[in-house]
């Protein structure tokens, strides 16, 4: 077989240099705002790393609009997760968050999240994060200080005045988990807030009513989970536009008074009473009862329909077989679609 001469390396290099270069859009030639938008789709840790690629990319990450800080994202490698091993990771996490926020431009942040088992010991640092969020006009804020293991700690006492309209009129969505929550008397409310989720907080009946009543009538979603001090959920402000309510695992809850145009209710927990007849406009209810009894079933099948005259879908989830003993009562119920699982 004849040998094929492909020439020397020098000849090959000259040939390649003589070939016309293909013209096209180069990543490095994109406008700064587009590059910032691309970097904002990367985790903040990876976005910071791009600063070493090119000289004029050195500061691009500082316009990142999607700041998500969590132990998982900042320490993706294997690590121990026991309660005695959290502290070292937590301290490093706080230092890294502070370092990023100090170098960030502080403008154009749409979403900012802090997810780590922090507590009131780090209150000054957390308050600095909250102030950064409000100063950057963020639209979505998540403070999730839940711990994967039981850890003796004092929850961070959040001052809602740092987030109300006197400080942040751009906030549209907020999630608060494992914080101590007290609504001050001079709380100014949320003018543009559409979405609230509260989990594992010590909020009381009165504070929750005060909080929701000061959302200027545009709140569309309210989620409550594991709030152990709630006994009666009273949300009857006439200007409310709330459409979707989630209530999970509030063990002491006894009743819900929901006098507004609610469309969807998701509930998990012990049996509770709903508001008086004719007050609800619900169309979709999903209920998962714990410790279900015949009385609660009778209430749902004979009285709930009068309270919720527009109900179209009722999804009931329970484990105990006694639900079937009361199904004959369903003939009096007004729902057009009834699911039991």
From TrEMBL:
<dbReference type="InterPro" id="IPR032675">
    <property type="entry name" value="LRR_dom_sf"/>
</dbReference>
<dbReference type="InterPro" id="IPR001810">
    <property type="entry name" value="F-box_dom"/>
</dbReference>
<dbReference type="InterPro" id="IPR053772">
    <property type="entry name" value="At1g61320/At1g61330-like"/>
</dbReference>
<protein>
    <recommendedName>
        <fullName>F-box domain-containing protein</fullName>
    </recommendedName>
</protein>
<dbReference type="InterPro" id="IPR036047">
    <property type="entry name" value="F-box-like_dom_sf"/>
</dbReference>
<dbReference type="Pfam" id="PF00646">
    <property type="entry name" value="F-box"/>
</dbReference>
<dbReference type="InterPro" id="IPR053781">
    <property type="entry name" value="F-box_AtFBL13-like"/>
</dbReference>
<feature type="domain" description="F-box">
    <location>
        <begin position="24"/>
        <end position="60"/>
    </location>
</feature>
<dbReference type="Pfam" id="PF23622">
    <property type="entry name" value="LRR_At1g61320_AtMIF1"/>
</dbReference>
<dbReference type="InterPro" id="IPR055357">
    <property type="entry name" value="LRR_At1g61320_AtMIF1"/>
</dbReference>
């Amino acid at each position: 077989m004849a040998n094929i001469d492909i020439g020397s390396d020098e000849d090959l290099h000259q040939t390649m240099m003589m070939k016309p270069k293909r013209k096209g859009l180069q990543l490095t030639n994109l406008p700064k705002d587009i590059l910032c938008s691309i970097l904002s789709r990367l985790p903040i840790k990876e976005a910071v790393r791009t600063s070493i690629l090119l000289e004029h990319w050195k500061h691009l990450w500082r316009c990142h609009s999607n700041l998500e800080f969590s132990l998982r994202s900042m320490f993706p490698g294997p690590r121990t997760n026991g309660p005695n091993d959290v502290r070292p990771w937590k301290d490093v996490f706080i230092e890294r968050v502070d370092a990023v926020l100090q170098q960030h431009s502080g403008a154009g942040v749409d979403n900012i999240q802090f997810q780590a088992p922090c507590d009131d010991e780090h209150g000054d640092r957390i308050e600095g994060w909250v102030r950064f969020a409000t100063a950057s006009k963020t639209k979505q804020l998540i403070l999730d200080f839940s711990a994967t293991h039981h850890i003796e700690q004092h929850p961070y006492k959040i001052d809602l005045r740092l987030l109300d309209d006197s400080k942040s009129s751009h906030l549209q969505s907020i999630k608060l988990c494992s914080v101590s929550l007290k609504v001050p008397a001079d709380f100014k409310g949320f003018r543009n807030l559409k979405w609230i989720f509260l989990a594992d907080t010590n909020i009381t009946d009165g504070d929750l009513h005060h909080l929701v009543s000061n959302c200027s009538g545009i709140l569309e979603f309210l989620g409550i989970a594991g709030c152990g001090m709630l006994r009666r959920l009273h949300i009857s402000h006439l200007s409310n536009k709330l459409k979707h309510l989630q209530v999970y695992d509030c063990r002491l809850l006894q009743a819900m008074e929901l006098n507004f145009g609610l469309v969807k209710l998701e509930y998990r927990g012990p049996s509770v009473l709903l508001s008086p007849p004719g007050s609800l406009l619900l169309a979709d209810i999903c209920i998962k009862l714990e410790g279900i009894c015949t009385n609660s079933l009778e209430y749902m099948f004979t009285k709930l329909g009068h309270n919720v005259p527009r109900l179209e879908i009722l999804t009931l989830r329970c484990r105990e077989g006694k639900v079937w003993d009361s199904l004959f009562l369903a003939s009096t119920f007004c729902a057009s679609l009834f699911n039991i699982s």
